[in-house]
Design goal:
Structural class: alpha+beta
Number of domains: 1
CATH architecture: Roll
Largest sheet: 5 strands, antiparallel
Mean pLDDT: 89
CATH topology: DNA Polymerase III, Chain A, domain 2
Strand order of the largest sheet: 1-9-8-7-2
CATH class: Alpha Beta
Order of helices and strands: HEHEHEEEEHEEEE
Distance between the termini: 29 Å
Strand content: 35-45%
Low-confidence stretches: 4-19
Shape: globular
Radius of gyration: 16 Å
């Protein structure tokens, strides 16, 4: 019985971790930890809020050929509309709640999707989001 409870606890904690993926940092801390921004793509915060509303648990980001791609929980392409991506294309996964929190805390009309040397960050105002899961293998 103890082993069963332990196993259930581990599974629960792992699922909580997946759906709370991402951490909000100050912009300065993000620059110190992850280096300078190499590519920055501007997006209206209102558009990003709308995309967050189209996905229930997680939202995925990548910059491909200098364009921002956003996917929902099931890897359906939300941006750019009408496009598709291969199942092996790697995306950065954040919980929708942490992206919404970033937009609320940053409270500016423009959000930046940023490619740094080894990570993809999202910045709104003085706050930056990172610590994404990578999909695949951790897609939902």
């Amino acid at each position: 019985m103890k082993k069963l409870l332990f196993a259930l606890s581990v599974v629960t904690l792992m699922s909580i971790n997946v759906y709370s993926q991402g951490k909000i940092l100050s912009k300065e801390e993000a620059n110190e930890l992850f280096g300078t921004v190499l590519v920055s793509k501007e997006m209206p915060a209102s558009s990003l809020k709308a995309f967050v509303g189209q996905s229930s648990k997680v939202i995925m980001f990548n910059i491909i050929n200098n364009d921002v791609y956003i996917l929902d929980d099931s890897r359906k392409v939300l941006l750019p509309s009408g496009f598709s991506v291969s199942s092996s294309e790697v995306f950065h996964v954040y919980s929708t709640s942490i992206v919404q929190e970033l937009l609320d805390n940053g409270n500016t009309p423009v959000t930046y999707i940023e490619q740094r040397k080894e990570v993809l960050t999202i910045t709104n105002g003085n706050f930056t989001l990172e610590y994404a899961l990578i999909c695949p293998p951790f897609c939902n």
